[in-house]
Amino acid sequence: MAVFHPQGQEEAAAYTAPAGPATGHLKKANEFRKKLAKLFYKETWWMWTSPCICGGLGCVPPMAPPLCMAHDKYCCCESLCQSEPWGGDGMGFCFDICKCCCCVSHSACPPGGGKNDGVPLCALCNQRCGGESGEDVMDNEDAQLMKGTFFLYYCLCYGCGVGQFAEPLIKTHRKCCCIRTTSYTTDPFPSDRDCMYSHAKVFCCISACTCPALGGKRDGMPGCSCFGKVLFGPPAPEGEALRSL
Q1: pLDDT at residue number 132
Q2: pLDDT at position 243, please?
Q3: Which DSSP letter does residue 213 get?
Q4: Which residues touch 95 (CB under 8 Å, ≥6 apart)?
Q5: DSSP bridge pairs for 74
Q6: What is the phi/psi pair of residue 17, to 5°?
Q7: Is the bond leading into 235 cis (omega within 30 degrees of zero)?
Q8: How far apart are CA 26 and CA 28, in angstroms?
Q9: What is the largest CA-CA distance in the chain?
Q10: Nearest alpha-carbon partner for 155 in 116, 108, 90
Q11: Would you tell me how many other CB atoms lie within 10 Å of the CB of residue 245?
Q12: pLDDT tens figures, 96-122
């Protein structure tokens, strides 16, 4: 009697279910929120904040890391931006990943991206050639997305293909030398934060706003303050806020 080996089924399962594709960007967003909340609570001197403009400006020590970062959310669209070392996370020095529904495109410099990022040097109808070291693909969201994409073509620095129709429906992830940006669709009305906000740090300058006004009690930003003195609408206690993030 012939013995059936489910190798094909296992490969198909690996193709259709990359590890953790819907959680990596959410984890990164939570890390951003915690980092900014700690910065707002511990190091920011608020020059002024006002509910009339839903936010305000402040200052931090000039070399407080990272030098630049931003976290914005407008209803169902969320974006992250941060300065970082050139080496990054193994996806290459410069790259651009775009996903819209099930359509995926990728470009990278140098050609092929990183050694274990799931991106080939050349591909045609998902027949891949070069670009990988032969080791397992990295266990992160973008590398697994590249591994699971059926590349229609890929030629040195650019290619496109078909991926899973899964969350996030729309996503971009870009890195140019020391600047990394990520944008994606998300829940427009989350229970743990506001529906719209913009928090940014550029060197020693802090800019923050949230909508509705006075809504972000756990983000470390006071509702109304002037030259370091909170007039009203203080943020939640630091310990309570950081535990809830």
Answers
A1: 73
A2: 63
A3: T
A4: 106, 107, 108, 109, 113, 173, 174, 175
A5: 77, 196
A6: -135, 70
A7: no
A8: 5
A9: 83
A10: 108
A11: 16
A12: 999 999 999 999 888 877 778 889 999
Are 66 and 50 in contact, with CB atoms under 8 Å apart?
A: no
User: Distance between CA 191 and CA 139 in Å, rounded?
Assistant: 29
Q: Could you give the residue ranges of the DSSP H alpha helices within the chain?
A: 7-16, 24-42, 141-148, 238-244
Mean pLDDT, each 10-residue run in order, the chain (245 residues): 37 40 70 86 92 92 85 93 79 89 92 82 91 73 90 94 90 92 90 86 92 74 91 79 61
Determine the pLDDT at residue 23: 65
Residues listed for the chain: 245
- Cβ atoms of 88 and 143 closer than 8 Å: no
**How many Cα atoms within 13 Å fall on the side-chain side of residue 199?**
22
Domain extents for the chain? 45-76+189-240, 84-186
* Tokens 């590890």 sit on residue: 19
Name the token pair of 131: 């670009």
Q: 10 Å Cβ neighbour count for 239?
A: 9
Confidence at residue 32, expressed as pLDDT on a 0 to 100 scale: 82
- Distance, in Å, from the CA atom of 231 to the CA atom of 49, rounded to the nearest integer, reads 10
Tokens of 195: 């529906």
| pLDDT at residue 191, rounded to an integer | 78
Q: Do the strands 122-124 and 150-155 form a parallel or antiparallel pair, or are they unpaired? A: antiparallel
